[in-house]
């Protein structure tokens, strides 16, 4: 409770991501690994020089999916974080939006002396929440290229 680890550890390993990685590694041509072994490469060198460079598209995809999933997650933070100083951005935006909705609808229990945040503030906070993902995606997009193994071996 009230630690970042309560948010990180449960989502650190996804069965879906493991299945995707396993299937991607199964489709890599065995001829590349065999050729490297014939050339005298050990397992570490094969991993670093052949398997990892060919795996950049799937690793980039899974990394982007994981980052977006964790960035947008608010429910676990709502359950496990009690200290307002440790709230994630999405919890704060949710509170801001529910406050605006309560004030707009004239909900009971809302202090009328407090100036309500305008819809522009809510929209700006939503933009602020999606901005990091929008900025990261163009740099990750170059890894979303299929067919890296074309021409690697002759059929």
UniProtKB/TrEMBL annotation:
A GO-annotated cellular component: plasma membrane
Pfam families referenced in this protein's UniProt entry, alphabetically: BPD_transp_1
Residues spanning the membrane: 6-25, 46-68, 120-140
InterPro entries for the chain: MetI-like, MetI-like_sf
Similarity annotation: Belongs to the binding-protein-dependent transport system permease family.
Residue ranges occupied by any ABC transmembrane type-1 domain in the UniProt entry: 1-140
PANTHER family in the record: ABC TRANSPORTER PERMEASE PROTEIN MG189-RELATED-RELATED (PTHR43744), POLYGALACTURONAN_RHAMNOGALACTURONAN TRANSPORT SYSTEM PERMEASE PROTEIN YTCP (PTHR43744:SF9)
Top-level taxon of origin: Bacteria
Compartment annotation: Cell membrane
The organism of origin for this protein: Candidatus Avimonoglobus intestinipullorum
Main location: membrane
The keyword Zinc appears for this protein: no
Protein's recorded name: Carbohydrate ABC transporter permease
PROSITE patterns given in the database record: ABC_TM1
Membrane topology classification: Multi-pass membrane protein
One GO biological process term: transmembrane transport
Keywords associated with the record: Cell membrane, Membrane, Transmembrane, Transmembrane helix, Transport
